[in-house]
Structure formats: structure tokens, C-alpha cells
Amino acid sequence: MTNTKTAPTLYERLGGKAAIDAAVDLFYDKVLKDERIRHFFDGVDMKKQRQKQRAFLAYAFGAPTRYTGKDMRSAHAALVKRGLDESHFDAVAENLAVTLAELDVPAALIKEVLLVAASTKNDVLGR
């Protein structure tokens, strides 16, 4: 007999939809206060932005959902033209890590999340 049970996804280990929703809300509260990056969100419909981020993170972390949004390169191209660079990417990652720590996510899971984020860096920065 084979074991058909699969290991829980990062999405599941983080706590699923409720955890992603809470993290996204707290994350954007931090981002919008961060002098280094908040200007990139001027004029952005933050309700829609939060929805997009929830959908992307759920998909990226292994939720049983489809992601139908833009790819990372296309989604960030206008920001790159406005000066988005590695320091801004790192500021976003820092805010994400702080958010997860505040939500008592274990350090090992935060590390996994940051590895997923890092895997998007070249596309986000248009490289």
C-alpha cells in the first residue's frame, strides 16, 4: 500500500485563507507607512491591490486555486519605469518578514516565504 497523503503546502502551514488575508492587511498597513516605498502606491486602489496580493500569495504558496492576474514582470513594469529597484524590493521583503513575525509565524516558515518572494525578484525588477 502506498501513502497517498501529500505534505501540507506552505499555504496550509501558514494557516490558509484567513492567515493570508490577515497578513496582507497588516503588510499593506506597514508598506503604506514606509517612506522608502509608499510613493509607489499613490493613486492605487488599495482594496483591489489587497485582493490581487491575496490571490497571488495563495497561489504562490500552494493553495488549490488558479492565479489569473498579470505575471510579475508585466505587473511591475510601470513601477520599474518609476525607479523601482533592489532597495525597494528589499524594503517590501522586510515589511513582509516583520508582518509575519508579528503574526507569530515561525521563523522557518518566514524563511520559506522570503525564498518564494526572492524567486520573483528578477521579474519584478524587469531583469
Characterize the structure shown.
The chain has a single domain, classed as Orthogonal Bundle (Globin-like). The longest helix is centred in the last third of the chain and has 17 residues. It is mainly alpha-helical. The chain starts with 9 loop residues before the first helix and ends with a helix. The protein contains seven helices and no strands.
In short:
The protein has 127 residues and is mainly alpha-helical. The protein has 7 helices and no strands. The protein starts with 9 loop residues before the first helix and ends with a helix.
Rounded radius of gyration (Å): 15 Å
Give the overall shape, derived from the CA principal axes: globular
Overall structural domain count: 1
Helix content: 55-70%
Class computed from helices, strands and strand pairing: mainly alpha
CATH superfamily label = Globins
Largest sheet: none
Strand content: under 5%
Order of helices and strands: HHHHHHH
Mean pLDDT: 92
CATH classification, class level: Mainly Alpha
The CATH architecture can be named as Orthogonal Bundle
Number of helices: 7
